[in-house]
Structure formats: structure tokens, C-alpha cells
Amino acid sequence: MTDFSALRGQFPILDQTIHGHPLIYLDSAATAQKPEVVIDAESDFYRSINAGVHRGAHELAARSTMAFEHARASVAALVGADTREGQEEIVVTAGATAGLNLLATAFGNASLGRGGEEARRFALKPGDGIVVSQAEHHSVLLPFQELAARTGASLSWFSLTPDGRIRTDMADEVITERTKIVAIAHVANTTGAVTDIAPVVRRAHEVGAIVVLDACQSVPHLPVDFHAMGVDFAVWSAHKMYGPTGVGFLYGRRDLLEALPPASFGGSMVELAWMDKPAQYMEPPARFEAGTQPVAQVVAAGVAADWMRSVGMDEIARHERSITHELLKLADVDGIRILGPRDEDHRIGTVAFEVEGVHPHDVGQYLDSQGIAIRVGHHCAQPVHRHFGVVASNRASTGVYNTVDEAQALVDAVHGVRPFFGA
Ligand code: PMP
């Protein structure tokens, strides 16, 4: 059994007071704090290894290449992707948003006939369909909405249950013979609801559509195995899984990555370049990693992945579940409505709530004055807020370092909000 209170000591940032109170950080859905091993990995890289990868003939370049590729394998092992050399399924990106734009751009390039015959499975034409859900982060909605606009494809979406879960039971109706791409959250970043992805994958593959999973909010909190899930592509950010900002990962099934045309162009992704004819691009993952990569951050993200696996994803999920249970007691506070499922069975510890009569910014400031950090606003997901009839909400979200006592402290503090503002 992991001693989570000892593990909390590995996060130096948490050991401080805010406005005279011990910091209670309940904003890990926005970005997670970093354990010492991750912070050290990034600075150690600069102290002893730093060099360009995949090209230098010198020893440092060899070491940095090894560290970079080792990190790719660590990340692959975390999510059930292939770790074998030559069979890599993990592409380095600048984050989930960059990964989603990479995919939408690459699909768009395929629609323009780029990538040849192999890439035709990704091509869209007028009348084809792209499916998302009403719970998506704008980083999913907008790239695919733009792709639809560029190609003449239509955009449709899964609607939500009253408590905000994606209606994947409607997969047979929402995904049609014309659907080419389904892009959907594994866990929604406002409601915290875990999507029942199996019917989506089954139906999408029945009609030959590609499934793109937004795994930003699942990889940090739940055991995830993309092979077992059968998704085609997945994206997430390192900074939400205890790694550095500025990097993320794209998982792609190997045969699909091999068929996908590139989305950005430049150095390190080309086998042969000429003045008078098109270039010949490298095999994945290099084909999708144009330009100098954030090597130190990738190496540190690999350490984060190893660290998560050493703690154990089942253990992390179990620990956070006990905190979620406590957070859900918010529902018992007078004038509080939870925007998401009320039971911890089908959700993670990302709990959005409305305080009747008090603007989220006021709620956020009130809690901050007691050292409690939560997120307020629309969390880059306006349509899901519209579903609940609000423009913004308050969102508390857990990480491995949180305790049940901290969740209780939040609930106690929320009891005081409406009386304080006279609502
Ligand atoms: N999708 C979801 C579900 C998210 O929570 C986030 C981050 N808020 C993103 C996509 C975008 O991630 P990033 O801003 O790190 O690119």
C-alpha cells in the first residue's frame, strides 16, 4: 500500500502558506504539481546531458538521444502503447491542443490528396461526418469544427444526460455510415464524468471511422490502455500528469501513424529534400516531430510516467476516489449544485459546482483567501456550461497529493460562501 501522506512530501510547492493558510491545491485538472524527481530530471538534463537529439556524432548527443527515446518508451508503457524500436506509437507534441491540431491538420492534408493512396482513409469530403460531444474541451471542438469547415464535412455531436454524461448509448444513431472521425473525451474536464467509450469504438469501427480520444483528464488519474480500448489516436498533456509544461503526447496505432501525412514541416522529419520535387518524409514518429524538440521536458515527462507507474495507477485511482467521495458532499451544502454525476463510480475527482446567487469569481476569491485553490470560469468548455444553463462554474479537482481532510476543508469553506455574500 502506498503511503500517500509520505508521497505528498515529494511535492515541494505544497509546503507553503497562502494568505496565512496552508495551501490546499485543488486545481490539478488545470495543471498538476510536480514531484521532486521530475523537477530534478529537467535540471539534471541541462546540467549533464543537454545536446541535440538524433543527429550529433558526439557522446552528449548520443546520451540525449537515448534519454529522449527512453522517455518515449516510459510514456508508452504508461498507456499500453508499443515500446519497441521501429514500432513506436508515441509522438511528442507541444501538448494536447497541439496534438489535436496536428491530427486535424493531417486529416485536412489527407483531404487535399496529400500522403497518397495510404492516407485516403483519413480524407474528408462534403457530406462526410465528424462527431464530437457537447462535453468537449474547446481544444477538441474547435480543431474539428474548423476541419469540417475546410473540407465541407458536417459536424454532429453526442448530447448529454441531465447530469452531464456523454450519451454514448446513442452511438448507433449518432455515428452513421457517413461518419469518418469521432473525437471524444475519455473524461470530461468540467463534469469529471468517465465516458463509456466501448460503444463508440465498436460503432465507429463498424462504419470505418477513426476514433480520436482526448485522454487529458484520464491518463493522470486512471489506468489507461489504448490497445485494450481499441482507440485509433489519443492525445494528452504532460503537465497534467505531474510532468513539465510545453509537452504532450499523441498516441497513434502504428499502422495509422504510418499512413498519416505530416502536419508540420521542417528539419528532422525529412529523409530526402530537393529543390524541384516533393520531399520524402521519415517514418513515424520522426515524421510528426519537425524542428528541435523540447528534449529536457520530454525526459522529465518520461520520469513522471515512470513515477506514476511506480506509485501504481490502480492505487492512484483508489486514493483519489476517496477524496472524490468527500468532495461530492458539496451536493449537501445549501444552494450548491454539482455539474456532473453525483456518484463516484463513473467519474474522477474533478467536481464542478454552482453556488446559487454567487458569481464563480467571488467564490474563487473567497476560497483563495483561505488558502484553497480551485478553478473558476468556463474551463474552456462553454457548450457543457450551456447544457447546465450557466455561463461559468467553480471546479475543484484532485491530484495524488490531496487528502480527505483537504476535501473536507473545501466543503466546510463552501458552507460559508453564501452567508458571506448574503446570497
Ligand atoms: N482536453 C481536456 C479535457 C483538457 O482538460 C485540456 C486542458 N485543460 C485540454 C484538452 C487541453 O490541454 P492543453 O491546454 O494542455 O493543451
UniProtKB/TrEMBL annotation:
GO annotation (BP), single: cysteine metabolic process
InterPro entries per the UniProt record, alphabetical: Aminotrans_V_dom, Aminotrans_V_PyrdxlP_BS, Cys_dSase_SufS, PyrdxlP-dep_Trfase, PyrdxlP-dep_Trfase_major, PyrdxlP-dep_Trfase_small
Single GO MF annotation: cysteine desulfurase activity
Reaction catalysed by this enzyme: (sulfur carrier)-H + L-cysteine = (sulfur carrier)-SH + L-alanine
EC number(s) reported in the record: 2.8.1.7
Top class in the EC scheme: transferase
Source organism, top-level taxon: Bacteria
Protein name: Cysteine desulfurase
Lineage: Bacteria, Bacillati, Actinomycetota, Actinomycetes, Bifidobacteriales
